[in-house]
Every structure is written in C-alpha cells, then in structure tokens.
Amino acid sequence: MTTHSVPRGTKDILPSEIPYWHLIESTARNLFDLYNYQEIRTPIFEHAELFEQGIGQGTDIVEKEMYTFTDKGDRRLTLRPEGTAPIVRAVIQHPELIHHQNAKLYYCGPMFRYERPQSGRYRQFHQVGVEYIGESNPEADIEIISMAYRFFEALGLEKLTVNVNSIGDEISRPVINEAIRQFLGNTKWLEKELCPRCLPRFNQNPLRILDCKNEVCNQYLSGMPDIKTLQSAACKDHFHSVIDGLKRLKIPFKVNPFLVRGLDYYTRTTFEIISDNLGAQNAICGGGRYDNLIKKMGGKSTPAIGFAFGIERIILALQAQKKVIKNTHSLIFIAPIGYTYYSQGMQMLDTLRRSGFKSEMDYAQKNDLKSQLKTANKLKATFVIILGEEEALKNTIIVKNMKTGIQTEIPSKTMVKYLQAQT
Ligand code: AMP
Questions:
Q1: Model pTM?
Q2: CATH code of domain 18-172+231-320
Q3: Tens digit of pLDDT for each residue in 334-349?
Q4: Atom of ligand 1 nearest to the CA of 284
C-alpha cells in the first residue's frame, strides 16, 4: 500500500507546536483589540482576477506563485497568496465596514504561494495582517508601524530591526524610475551584468532592482542617490512626520533607502521587520501604504496602510532564542483501583471538567495503582486522585501531589474545593 506524506512546502502543525500558535494568535488579538481593530475573515479562495489586478501583473506572486485552478463551473479561482487584496474587495463589497471614513481590520489565516521551499519559506504559510483603511495622515503610519513593533515586543522577540523607507507616490514614481535607469546607464553591459530577474525590471519597474538580493546588482546600485530626494515635498513631509512620530514613541528603527518591497500597490511608506535570529528568510513582517489600490480595484479613492507577519517565521525566531512555550494547564489524573470504581471515576471526571480542571483517566482497565501512577507521570499530571475500596467505604478519596509525593485523604464531596485551593 502506498503511504502518503504532505505536499512539498506544507507541513502538519503538531500538538507540541500548538502552544506557540495560540500564544501568537492570542497576543495579536488582544493587542489589536487595544488599538480598536476588528477581525475579518474572508474566503481562502477568490477570483484569480482579484489578485492579478490588485497585486499587479509584473510581480513574482502573480507571474509564478499563484495556485490558480478552474472549478466545475469554469471559474478561475486562486488560493489567496496574501490578505490585502481580499480585504480591499470586502471593504468595497460591504461599504458598511467603513465608519467615519475608517475601517480598522485584521485577519489571520493560511496563504498559498508556489515558492521554492526552504527553512522559513513554505507553500502554505500563515499570516496575521492588519489594514488601516481611510486615513492618509502620517499618524496612521505611526500607529501601524508602532503596533507591529509592540506586538513583537509583547512576544519577547529579540534582535529585531525595523527598516523604514518611502517609495513616493504616483507623481514621483516615473521620476524615480527614470533616475534609476540613468544611474545604471548603458543597457549593453546591463544585459551581461544584471541578474535575470532584474533585467526585465530595468524597463518595466526599475524600482524593484533596489531590493534585489543579488550581490552584483547591489554593487551597481551603490552610490545611487536616495530615492527620497526625488520625491515631492508632500511625500518628504509625510515621511519626516512618520520618522518623528516613531522617535517620539521610542520605536527603534533604521531608514533603509533600498527597501521597496515586492508588491506593486505600495505608495509612500514601506517597512519591514527583520529578525537577526533567522537565516536567509529573515523578514518576519512587511507592510506599507497603498493609497491607490482601493480606487484601482473599483472603489472610491481611499488611502490605506497595513502590514502582515508570518506566524511560522515568528515561531522559528522564538525557538532560536530558546523560548519554550508549553501548554501550562495542570492535569489531574484519576486512578480507580479496580474496575468497580470506574463509573465513580467517570462521574468525578465529569465534575472536574465542568469545574474547569483539565483531567483524564486511563480507560485501559489497569487495576493496579503502580501502573496508573506511571501513566500519570508520563502525562505530567500534577495531582492523582486515587479511588480504592477502603476509601469508597468511607466516601473519601486520596489526592496525591505528584511533585511532593504527599498523599492526603479528603471527603469525596470536597474534591473540587480542595483542588481549587491547591492549584
Ligand atoms: P509579504 O506578504 O510577502 O509582504 O510577506 C509578509 C510576511 O509573511 C513576511 O515577512 C514573512 O514573515 C511571511 N511570508 C511571506 N512569504 C512566506 C512564505 N512563503 N513562507 C513563510 N512565510 C512567508
């Protein structure tokens, strides 16, 4: 018989890793609630055109990474590769999401990209993302960047760098693109020197050459004037206000003039948070402003800014700093000595669980105490409740503290009260 394994680039998230997931998800939910953001859940697949139009045709995601299929009704659908385009679709489809011209939303869920798998890069991965829709002022950028930083701070993540830049608006973009072309100069040598990904970018979208990871491309860009000097006064003012605001909130950051990010929809502020505890895939969070996207997708012209972080990479970063996260609820184990006491044990289990105690009993009908204590030890139970003949006659139970080894006999009906006082 053939055995099966998960598809390449995906993985099972096993119970031992789940406490990390719960911690990250609950930290995010609690923090985002404090900033007054609301959760939204959109479908896992959408019409392919949504991403083609939203993310942009020339991008890596749309060109080669989408899981697109045709359903039985001949619709072209795509497993979502990112969360912003679906949120924009939802905001346009449900105008009531906008209160006082603002929608402050967050999402959490799986994303799908056909990428080359490696540590920290998967084909199914999970993002938590935030979108602040409707505000063009720099205070929104400050809130979004500081919220992302405060989230990582709350998780206790160390060795982080926040990189911030501005890539200008639609007016400055052609000027910037032309300046990059001029700086790189003669196309004849470019054909030999630039990497195969940057060569088409030279004509189509030179801005993207700035964040190429290839060393040769980087070398040719060294000495390139900061693209912020080519931006309009309004863009420059906006950026300075963002920087000043981050300083006032004491968010540590670096201005990185080469940070442009891979999605087409960004305008003005872009940012990325890098963990020095990870290898090649060291970006744990990315975001930026996208003031033109909502109009481009058929909505009213509405400014917006957001970010997304990858849960898998955060777990890798937490594990790299040896942060162990476990399920901390203590377990109570019920050990009936002999089958006669099983039904009483089942009733006690029910009482314990209804009183909020995590508890369990071995149904394998092991009648001797020794083997049951062994099981309790393996399960890391904190207390074992022993139900034996002698005790049953007196309506008592024995509670064994597994840490100290001390056994205490108590009336059965005081079990919950006793355990509440102990834990
Ligand atoms: P992006 O949507 O590309 O801006 O990515 C935002 C964040 O999602 C990144 O900083 C990563 O933490 C995470 N991420 C993106 N792609 C992947 C992937 N293929 N596997 C795991 N995490 C990813």
A1: 0.91
A2: 3.30.930.10
A3: 999 988 899 999 999 9
A4: 12
